[in-house]
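2024-03-11 09:14:02 INFO queue: dequeued item Sulfatase-like hydrolase/transferase, len=495
2024-03-11 09:14:02 INFO validating residues
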Amino acid sequence: MSSSRRPNILHLFTDQQRFDTIAALGHYPFLKTPNLDRLTSEGTTFERAYSPSPECVPARACMITGQYPGRTGCFSNANRMPAEDQPTFMERLRQSGYRTHGVGKCHFTPDPYSKRGFETRDYQEEIPEDRVRDDYARDLVESDCGWVLEPHGIRGEMYYVPQPSLLPEEKHPTHWIGDRSIDFIESEKTESQPWYLYSSFIHPHPPFAPPVPWHKLYRGPDMPLPDLPGDLEELTFFINRRQNRQKYRDYGGLDLNLIRQMRAYYFACISFIDKQVGRILQSLEKTGQLENTLIVFSADHGEYLGDYGCFGKRGMHDVSARVPMIVRWPDGSRADTRTGTPVSLIDLAPTFLRAADVPFETEDFDGIPLQSVADGSTGRTQVFSQYNCQENGLYMAVEEGWKYIFSAPDQKEYLFDLTNDPRENHNLASTTESHPELLRLREACQNWVHTTGQPGALAPDGTWHEYPIQKVPQDPNAMLGFQDPRWWDGKLPEW
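2024-03-11 09:14:37 INFO prediction written
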């Protein structure tokens, strides 16, 4: 393969993977992630990478457009993604001559089967519409596994109950992503056209359902307990309390043994993903394509896993809003390097286009190329994030040493000193209303909200709009729900 050819791009993406789940980065050294460890040693780790919106659909809308939620108009899973005529980086790559292919979860709305710049897709969605158009679900039916009603794990009341997968390893959804990615890489080994491959894993998104025997890789009693600071009400947001209820996790206190088992199965899901990453890297090596491929590994958002007494995503603590971000450069440069400059998923679009020599205007994107961050040639010091908007809005400004958050449903500010309080256990905004970093970052966050076209979040004078404080109903059955598969016909056992 000619080294002068534009590089291939392999985009490895996971769902709900915390930033602290790669062994080589030292947070949980007992984790078994040898292939992700390899990427850190052969590339650049961006240690302060953040989701522009810590929920699946808005995070992905931001990533594929390179723009913040205020410009995409997608603030939560309840919103549509931008219209299909708004260009994505996949479309720009395709128009420039790249072969573009997607494997796995895209979570495109309102049409989950749209292409949005992919020439082809192998469909595997978290809650598929049917068992015909979803390639993975159809494969299960054709292999006599159609009796498995919820192949990604049993949801509803079991959503946050750790569970071994009902499927064997070779039919597990994570393994299928590895298989289909390898199929694509091998099909392109003799082609002269550069390619972009998006390999998107649904795990470790709950339910935490690793296959046998991976469910024995980590044992619950060996897992670290969650971080439970003294004043949880002071440190958490309305969205935390609401989603704890919706996930059946707020009634009757915390079961710490159950949380440790959640963590064991969550980590097992990540290790099983790591296994597939290794298989994919081996395929690149075997076909002679590794050294001409830009590899990016990241995730859409994190997972609380019981920290702060919370479960799920959507919050702005690092365990929810901060993600892993590793780049292995095709020329082998910048190996085993790390940077603490804040970056975001919105930076991936210009990163891929620069790597592919596709021209673009800087105003096309809110993000900047990661090449500039890795080289230290950018002056940006902050990134931003938000979940939802206006009366439900949660807004964040973060830099290497400080984080500011405003929660509209709580009408409350938060300030964390990330250098001296990396676990975000002390809200300085509640103790020092005139803290200089609070005043500075509040202004930066409000200016960002204004410049991204969200006047409804701000009062006429540019300060935060005052909305009624929201509370979760006292009735423990309020707000509970189900997420049954759409193909279930509702039939129950008979006798």
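2024-03-11 09:14:37 INFO annotate: The first strand starts at residue 8 and ends at 15.
2024-03-11 09:14:38 INFO item closed
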